[in-house]
């Protein structure tokens, strides 16, 4: 059973999908992740994208803790229904429509995203069987839609290899929690203009 750990909706039990193939992030991993994100100042007023959302646990947790918006992207029908229930719960708690749900394949969603749309914080918890090459394609499609100071968090099995980061994304940290490893990446700094020296 998954729950919202902290914030305005803290303690709320999340809707789940019995028998579903979704793999919610454990509360232990979620608590460690959000402690790190709050220490980095990444949550307050952030525009969040939760890809392969499952139950939407990461996106709704972020809004409960002060993120501006969260978009949950999921394709499996029963999981989408759970996302919608969890979105309503958090939207009621914050008193506005902060969480929206998209029933879509992640690749298709990113391809159809309008240029100029940017997110500050992106969660990706793809199915473990997802091929490494497909994950790289999704990361490459995501890269143009990241804010300058964005953070991308990829959750994988601790036995999976490091993602093959595409141009435009730089891996700078990872953390292992039992069977789960979190990979943290950020956009490359913008190239310095002629005559300027980058910091």
TrEMBL record:
Keywords: Methyltransferase, Transferase. Gene3D superfamilies: Vaccinia Virus protein VP39 (3.40.50.150). The keyword Coiled coil does not apply. Pfam families: Cons_hypoth95 (PF03602). It comes from the Bacteria. CDD domains: AdoMet_MTases (cd02440). This is 16S rRNA (Guanine(966)-N(2))-methyltransferase RsmD.
């Amino acid at each position: 059973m998954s729950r919202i750990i902290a914030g305005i909706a803290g303690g709320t039990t999340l809707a789940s999908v019995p028998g579903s193939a979704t793999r919610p992030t454990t509360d232990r991993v979620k608590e460690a992740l959000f402690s790190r994100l709050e220490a980095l100042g990444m949550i307050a007023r952030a525009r969040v994208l939760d890809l392969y959302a499952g139950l939407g646990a990461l996106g709704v947790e972020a809004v409960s803790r002060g993120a501006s918006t969260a978009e949950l992207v999921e394709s499996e029908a029963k999981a989408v229904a759970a996302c919608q229930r969890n979105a309503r719960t958090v939207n009621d708690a914050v008193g506005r429509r902060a969480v929206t749900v998209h029933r879509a394949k992640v690749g298709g969603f990113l391809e159809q995203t309008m240029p100029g749309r940017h997110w500050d914080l992106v969660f990706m918890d793809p199915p473990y069987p997802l091929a490494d090459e497909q994950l790289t394609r999704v990361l490459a499609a995501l890269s143009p839609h990241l804010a300058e100071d964005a953070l991308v968090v990829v959750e994988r099995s601790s036995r999976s290899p490091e993602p093959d980061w595409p141009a435009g994304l730089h891996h700078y940290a990872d953390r292992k929690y039992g069977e789960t490893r979190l990979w943290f990446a950020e956009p490359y700094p913008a190239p310095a203009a002629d005559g300027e020296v980058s910091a």
